[in-house]
Specification:
Elements lengths: L1 H25 L4 H5 L3 H20 L3 H30 L2
Helix pairs in contact: 1-4, 3-4
Length: 93
């Protein structure tokens, strides 16, 4: 039963990042929209997800490791878009 709870939490964990990822993909060329994303938050989220992947697989806790295999690259991509928007925004000044 506790493993089932872990997998349900994993699905919810992935679900919380999916709307932001989808929005970032749709608006990736709208630099003003991407500049509104917090770089610090996505640096933290990316690092956290990478560490959870390492921890989850090192301790054989798949409900922790598996969802973060999706979350880490999703957060990294959103971070990339936010940084790119800032760089392009400062280049246009």
């Amino acid at each position: 039963m506790i493993v089932l709870i872990g997998y349900v939490a994993a699905v919810i964990d992935v679900a919380q990042f999916t709307p932001q990822l989808w929005r970032a993909i749709r608006l990736r060329h709208e630099y003003q929209a991407m500049k509104g994303l917090s770089v610090v938050a996505y640096v933290i989220a990316t690092a956290q997800a990478i560490l959870w992947v390492i921890y989850g697989f090192a301790t054989n806790r798949l409900p922790i490791g598996l969802p973060n295999l999706f979350i880490a690259p999703a957060c990294a991509y959103i971070l990339f878009l936010a940084l790119r928007a800032r760089r392009r925004g400062s280049a246009n000044r």
